[in-house]
Write a structure and sequence with these properties.
Layout lengths: L6 H7 L1 E2 L8 E3 L11 H13 L8 H4 L4 E3 L5 H8 L5 H24 L6 H25 L18 H18 L14 H14 L3 H14 L7 H4 L8 E5 L27 E3 L1 H4 L9 H4 E4 L2 E4 L12 E5 H11 L5 H10 L10 H15 L6 H7 L19 H6 L10
Helix pairs in contact: 1-2, 2-5, 2-6, 5-6, 6-7, 6-8, 7-8, 8-9, 8-13, 9-13, 13-14, 13-15
Length: about 425
C-alpha cells in the first residue's frame, strides 16, 4: 500500500502543537465539516503520523533490554542507566511522540464516531481504534498508569491506574476487531486488518496474565492458516511473505524513519551512524545453524551491526508491528510445558533442533531465549523480562521495571506523579 502523503489536506485537518502532554490541537476544522470524501486523506494522515513517531519509540524495549549498547558504552546496562534518567531525550521524545500521535488518532475517531456506518467509515474507525490501542499498549508497558484521553482537553490530567489503561486497550481492540475488514490477500499487510487486531489481542491477553485467552486467540490465528511462519530473508528483505500480519510500509517519500541508520557503521555498503550496536551477548545468542543469525546481526569492517533493516542511509525499511511467529510463541508460553510442541515448531522453522525442558522454570527460560532471538530490534525484550519477573537478569534494577515520567512533562502538568525510584 502506497499511502502517499496528502500534505495540504492533512495539515488543514490536523495542525497540532506541544503543550501539556503534547496532546492539544492548536487548530482544527469542525468534524461536521468533514465529508466522507475526506476520509481517505484522514486515513492517510493517521497512518503517516503513526509510522512517523520517533524511530526510537519502535525499539525502546530493545534499548533498555540489555542486548543493545550505545557507541560510547561498554555494556547494555550502561545504556539502560542512561535512558532511565528523568531528563533523557529518548524517553522524552518517545512519550511526546505517543501523545502527539494520540491527538491525531482521537481526532479521526471523533470525526467518524457519529457518522452513518459504511465500509469506508468502519475501516477508518477500526484503524483508529487499533492505533489508539497500540499507543496505549506501549504507554502502559513502559510507564504503567498514564492519563486516558479520548479527546483533547486543556485540563491538567492525572494518571489513570495501569488496570484502567489495560481495560481501555482491551475495549479499543474489541472495537477495532468489530469494524475492521478481514485481511484479504498476501501482501496487504500494510493495511490494518481485523486479523491484526486479533493478533494484538493475543499479545494483550498474554501480557495481562490471561493465558487461557492468549492461547485460544493465538491458536485461532495459527489454525486459520492464512498466515504462516516464513524465512527471515523474506520478512526483512522486502520480499512477499506469509509471516507479516501488519507492518508500516514506511516508504521513503512518506517517512524519514531510517531505522538501520541507527545500527550500521560506515563500513556497511549503505552506511549508517552506528548509534546503537550489539552487546557481546548477541554474538553468542545464535547457533551457527540458526537461519536468523546473519539477518539479525553481521560484521562490517570488524564491527558487529544489527542487520534487520538493510537500507542504512540510503532509504527506509518497513517497521513490523505483529507477525506470525509471535502467535506460536504466545501459544507456547501461555500453555506452559504443554506448549512445547509450538515452541519446537518455531525452532525447527529457524533451523534448530527440538529441546526438552523438564520443569516450568527451564521452559520459561527457553521461551525468553527464543523470544530474544526472534525479536531482536523489534521492540519486545524489555517488557518480556519485566512481565515475567526476570528483569534483573538483563541488568534492570527494581525501580527500572518502569521508565521515568519525563521531568519536562511533570513541569507542565503537576498532576503527573513520578514512578517510584526516580
Amino acid at each position: 500500500m502506497k499511502k502517499i502523503l496528502l500534505f495540504s489536506i492533512v495539515l488543514a485537518l490536523f495542525t497540532s502543537c506541544g503543550n501539556q502532554l503534547d496532546i492539544y490541537p492548536h487548530s482544527a476544522i469542525s468534524p461536521d465539516a468533514v465529508t466522507e470524501s475526506d476520509l481517505p486523506a484522514l486515513e492517510t494522515g493517521m497512518y503517516s503520523k503513526c509510522q512517523n513517531m520517533p524511530r526510537e519509540s519502535f525499539i525502546l524495549n530493545d534499548l533498555v533490554g540489555g542486548l543493545v549498547m550505545g557507541n560510547v558504552h561498554a555494556t547494555g546496562k550502561d545504556l539502560i542507566n542512561q535512558i532511565t534518567q528523568i531528563d533523557n531525550d529518548v524517553v522524552q521524545k518517545t512519550w511526546n511522540g505517543y501523545f502527539m500521535t494520540l491527538s491525531q488518532v482521537n481526532n479521526v475517531l471523533n470525526i467518524t464516531l457519529n457518522r452513518a456506518e459504511s465500509p469506508e467509515v468502519n475501516r477508518v474507525k477500526g484503524t483508529a481504534y487499533f492505533f489508539r490501542a497500540y499507543i496505549y499498549l506501549n504507554l502502559v508497558t513502559h510507564w504503567g498508569g498514564v492519563p486516558i484521553l479520548e479527546k483533547s482537553t486543556l485540563e491538567n490530567v492525572p494518571r489513570n491506574s495501569a488496570a484502567e489503561v489495560w481495560d481501555f486497550i482491551q475495549s479499543d481492540l474489541d472495537k477495532a476487531e468489530q469494524y475492521l475488514p478481514a485481511y484479504t490477500e498476501v501482501g496487504s499487510y500494510y493495511y490494518v486488518s481485523k486479523d491484526a487486531a486479533t493478533a494484538l489481542k493475543a499479545r494483550v491477553a498474554l501480557y495481562r496474565g490471561d493465558k487461557q485467552t492468549a492461547k485460544q486467540i493465538a491458536e485461532s490465528m495459527i489454525e486459520k492458516g492464512q498466515f504462516k511462519m516464513d524465512k527471515f530473508e523474506k520478512i526483512f528483505r522486502g520480499q512477499p511473505n506469509s509471516e507479516i500480519i501488519f507492518a508500516f510500509e514506511n516508504l521513503t517519500e512518506e517517512s524519514s524513519v531510517k531505522m538501520s541508520e541507527l545500527f550500521y557503521n560506515y563500513s556497511h555498503p549503505n552506511k549508517g551512524s552506528y548509534i546503537y550496536r550489539p552487546t557481546i551477548e548477541v554474538s553468542v545468542l545464535f547457533d551457527d545453524n540458526d537461519n536468523r543469525k546473519t539477518i539479525t546481526w553481521d560484521t562490517f569492517g570488524g564491527q558487529n551491526c544489527f542487520n534487520k533493516y538493510p537500507s542504512g542511509q540510503t532509504g527506509t525499511d518497513p517497521v513490523i508491528l505483529v507477525r506470525m511467529s509471535e502467535m506460536y510463541l504466545i501459544s507456547a508460553e501461555a500453555q506452559g510445558l504443554a506448549g512445547l510442541g509450538r515452541l519446537n515448531e518455531l525452532r525447527r522453522e529457524r533451523g534448530l533442533d527440538d529441546i526438552h525442558p523438564t520443569t516450568e522454570a527451564e521452559y520459561m527460560q527457553a521461551i525468553l531465549l527464543e523470544r530474544s532471538r526472534e525479536f531482536v530490534t523489534e521492540g519486545h525484550r524489555y517488557y518480556d523480562y519485566v512481565r515475567t519477573g526476570h528483569g534483573t537478569e538483563i541488568g534492570l534494577q527494581d525501580y527500572q521495571m518502569l521508565l521515568p515520567i519525563p521531568e519536562s512533562q511533570r513541569l507542565v502538568n503537576p498532576e503527573l506523579t513520578q514512578n517510584d525510584g526516580y
